[in-house]
Amino acid sequence: MDANIIITDYKSNRLSFLLEEGALTKVSFLNPESLVGNIYTAKVVNIVKSINAAFLDVGTGDYLYYSLIDNEGKNIFLQHGNTDKVCVGDELLVQVSMDPIKTKKGVATSDITLKGRYIILNRSGEIGISKKISDPEKRNELIRTVGDICADGAIIRTAAAEAATDELIKDAEELVALFNKIQKKAENSLCKKLIHSSTYNYSNEIEDIVLKNKYESFKVITDKEDIYDELKTRIDGRFLYFYDDEMVSLEKLYSLETRLEKGFNRTVYLKSGGSIVVEPTEALTVFDVNTGKLIKGKNVEATFLKINKEAAKEIVRIIRLRNISGIIIIDFINMKDNNKISELISYLKNELSKDEVVVKYVDITALGLVEITRKKILSPYSLKMFEKGNI
Question: Are 347 and 314 in contact (CB under 8 A)?
Fold first, then answer.
């Protein structure tokens, strides 16, 4: 797969546009207003036993949801009474794992993670490793090396397979030192304070793409000198291009405004003549696939499969572009051939595997509705957000 990242100013906002095979797949603010990844000292203000949850005040103006079940045995107490249970008035060290979405509270966790170049430090108590590292000897070597340093747990990333041992050790030691520093700072800090900020870093994301060899062909194109200069220190120059044509802007060259508008339309048209209608609701998002034309001929099922597969690819792109999360229902064109239905589901699963966010195929119902879920992290995007620069 070929891909380009375009970094430029759009309506007074600096944005990163990911184009995969020429299709706009993801848009990101270089300085998003998100709490995800931030680490705070928190005050427990309420316990709701019926849902086994606590609500925390971290000083951001709204309380965060904290699952007592998910965090059992992982609580990082800064101040508490004579019980191991979380109580009102306790002070905890937590990390934001999900921003507030509509009427739902943001979510906090004590399962703090810190992302490095080759590993992700966590508190799982286990050393996990990327499935893409398949060589058993290499897997065991990496697990031993990281395990000697990260006693509380870590995940070894795909890029670690190509890293020198000393680089891997340095990455692990720096993350452990950072976590210890965060804990010490929290112990000496007032409650409801930001201890560590984990804002989106576009250069880290781009470096990850290069290290993982995610695309067969990949290039970052920007018309901003500061962006270009920073990326020169992070990635090989082969992947970087500075655009300085004053006659045509990057926005016009890649038709970014048109791509955005089409990507957020209620009805998205397919090359086959079919279409997809996107219906977001409070509880879930529905995708309705239509033929769009009168289908004739003997091999109707084959035509339906072709349209459905094109729709599946497009639906995954729309999900990523709009950051749709939660319950997602897809009403594909009805097919009677079980083999063709299985082929469609396999194709959909393969497309879903390209998503950076955790997404799960659930089932296909008796009515032929496909159910999937996507992890909620940030609020869903809308076209107005990019125009106003307000996520």
Answer: no
Q: What residues contact 87, with CB distance under 8 A and at least 6 apart? A: 44, 47, 80, 81
CB atoms within 10 A of CB 293: 12
Q: What is the spatial distance between Cα 37 and Cα 32, in angstroms, rounded to a whole number? A: 12
Structure confidence at residue 199 (pLDDT): 59
SS3 call for 262 = helix
Spatial CA neighbour of 386 closest among 280, 248, 297, 256: 256
Q: Distance (Å, rounded) from C-alpha 263 to C-alpha 370?
A: 22
pTM above 0.85, yes or no: no
Question: What's the pLDDT score for residue 267?
Answer: 93
Residues in the chain: 391
What is the model's pLDDT at position 60? Answer: 87
231-272 residue pLDDT tens: 888 888 899 999 999 899 999 999 999 999 999 999 999 988
What are residue 80's phi and psi, to 5 degrees?
-160, 175
Closest CA to 259 of 271, 251, 249: 251
Q: Is 371 exposed, middle or buried (0-12, 13-18, 19+ CB in 10 A)?
A: middle
Do residues 332 and 305 touch, judged by C-beta distance below 8 A? Answer: no
CA–CA distances in Å: residue 195 to residues 36, 86, 106: 13, 21, 18
Q: Which amino acid is at 96?
A: V
Give the per-residue pLDDT at 391.
Answer: 42
Does residue 388 register a pLDDT over 60? no
Instruction: Give the integer Cα–Cα distance in Å for 149 and 155.
Output: 12
